[in-house]
Design goal:
heterodimer, A: 378 residues, alpha/beta, Rossmann fold, Hypothetical protein af1432, 2 domains, five-stranded parallel sheet, B: 122 residues, mainly alpha, Four Helix Bundle (Hemerythrin (Met), subunit A), elongated
């Protein structure tokens, strides 16, 4: 903020300009800019962006004071520069004030008054500039703080996802040892959701919710969950309740979209397109698309992955099995999307593949997932 | 040195209010001669324009020039001239042809008085 006051004085009479120059001299650090008429005044304003006060005479040829005042006060660049009009006529005072003049002084000049008014208005203008400068500084601060906040928010979301993954792993811990399975289901589901035209936001919600699909297994007793052989009918019934148990665990969380989505996925990821699924036997599009998507991801992962109870199927075999389930198990449209974009899904399988292979001796201890029993070819 | 001439009212209106002028030019004594010269030039110009305007009864121009004269005479401290200029302005806005002629005559007299007063000033 400069200390010199730049004062523009506009008067067609040279002696008046000279007088004002000398009058203002005693203010100290003043730069005096004279103009003989409105045209000259505007030229000076254009060149100099730092004029602090304008002293404006009204009676002038070549653009008189009124027009000059009008030009100054209607310009975005000059509007905030205080204009002190030199007049003594009452009518001129009200007229110029209504046009935006900031103040007026009479002729003959009262030197003390002129100086005081000039200083007052210069001070107000400087304060205005300070405010604008402050605003610029504050805006920069807001941008910085917002960025920091966004970073914290992003981290929060990442933490949420991580918790979801861990919860999913916890649920499956007893009957499945590969943590990457949960991660793969999550990423496969998101990819398929995007391909199905689901919004970025909702696909992300599904990505966060998919790990929770088997959380209900927490409620399944060991004798069923860990039984090595095939399950008989009552045991199968118990097993199937992991869907409703999961839904109960994730219920009444309307304000949390991820948990609400998790509830849907937990409940419906075993519903089949032809209505022969469980727990509700929903069919077709009655099954929430989240459920239909996770089912495809879950089964594909199971077929193609190395497991303790089975070797991995070859890709061709896995795809053959899945095609057989089209329209029966799987939403035909979703399956087509899946098959047409296989490279995406294979990429995910590769990126998130299991790191540790279980030792051969441990293989037989883990039971086969019950739903694979339902595939004739397995 | 000022020359005080009493007018009709009790308070003397000065021919030349030197101290007021000095205050208006930030106390710069040495600038006074220059200011007076510029003022005299200004008045010459105004007077010649007034001669033409008054004889043509051009009240608009008379108003404008009287206004200018009012300004410069007020600022220089030629208070008596200042008063006459105001009078002239009033007459012109009233369309008073006789009044503006009379005012012009007075103006010339006051001008002469002012010159005499200030010529004596160093």
């Amino acid at each position: 903020m400069k200390d010199t006051l730049a004062i523009l004085a506009v008067d067609d009479i040279e002696i008046n300009l000279l007088m004002i120059r000398h009058m203002l001299d005693s203010l100290g650090d003043v730069e005096f800019l004279p103009a003989r008429n409105g045209r000259e005044a505007l030229d000076i304003l254009e060149k100099r962006h730092d004029v602090d006060v304008v002293l404006l005479d009204l009676e002038m040829p070549v653009m008189n004071g009124f027009e000059t005042l009008e030009r100054i006060k209607s310009s975005d660049a000059f509007r905030d520069i205080p204009v002190i009009v030199i007049t003594a006529e009452a009518s001129e005072v009200t007229r110029t004030l209504s046009m935006g003049a900031n103040d007026f002084v009479a002729k003959p000049y009262n030197p003390e008054e002129v100086k005081m008014r000039v200083l007052n208005h210069a001070r107000v203008k400087k304060l205005g500039e300070l405010t604008r400068d402050m605003n610029v500084i504050l805006e920069a601060e807001v941008v910085k703080k917002t960025a920091a906040l966004q970073k914290a928010l992003d981290f929060s979301r990442k933490a949420e996802f991580e918790i979801s993954l861990r919860l999913g792993r916890a649920a499956e811990f007893r009957d499945m040892e590969t943590g990457m399975h949960i991660r793969r289901i999550s990423e496969l589901s998101k990819a398929l959701a995007l391909l199905a035209g689901i919004s970025q936001e909702d696909s992300d919600i599904l990505r966060h919710a998919a790990p929770l699909h088997d959380v209900g297994k927490i409620g399944i007793p060991d004798r069923v969950l860990l039984k090595p052989g095939k399950l008989d009918d009552p045991e199968l019934q118990i097993m199937r309740t992991h869907t409703t148990i999961g839904a109960t665990i994730l219920s009444e969380a309307d304000e949390f979209p991820v948990i609400t989505a998790g509830r849907i996925v937990a409940l419906q990821h075993h519903e089949k397109w032809d209505g022969s699924g469980y727990p509700l036997g929903l069919s077709g599009a009655d099954i929430h698309i989240f459920g239909r998507i996770v089912m495809i991801a879950d089964i594909f992962d199971a077929l193609i992955s190395e497991r303790p109870y089975k070797k991995a199927f070859s890709l061709e075999k896995a795809l053959e099995i899945m095609k057989e389930g089209k329209g029966e198990f799987f939403d035909p449209t979703l399956l087509e999307l899946f098959l047409d974009n296989l490279d995406v899904f294979l990429g995910i399988m590769e990126e998130f593949k299991d790191k540790n292979e279980p030792a051969d001796s441990e293989r037989s201890e883990f039971p086969a997932p019950h739903y694979l029993n339902e595939f004739p070819a397995v | 040195m000022t020359c005080s001439v009493k007018n009709d009212t009790d308070s003397p209106v000065k021919v030349f209010n030197r101290s007021a002028l000095l205050a208006r030019i930030g106390g710069n004594e040495e600038m006074i001669p220059r200011f007076i010269d510029m003022f005299l030039e200004s008045v010459e110009d105004c007077l010649s324009r007034l001669e033409r305007a008054v004889s043509a009864d051009d009240f608009a121009v008379v108003t404008t020039v009287a206004h200018t004269l009012k300004g410069v005479s007020g600022n220089i401290g030629a208070d008596r001239m200042h008063g006459v200029a105001i009078e002239m302005g009033k007459c012109a806005s009233n369309g008073d042809g006789k009044g503006i002629r009379s005012a012009l005559s007075e103006l010339r007299d006051e001008y002469a008085l002012f010159k005499a007063t200030t010529c004596a000033v160093p």
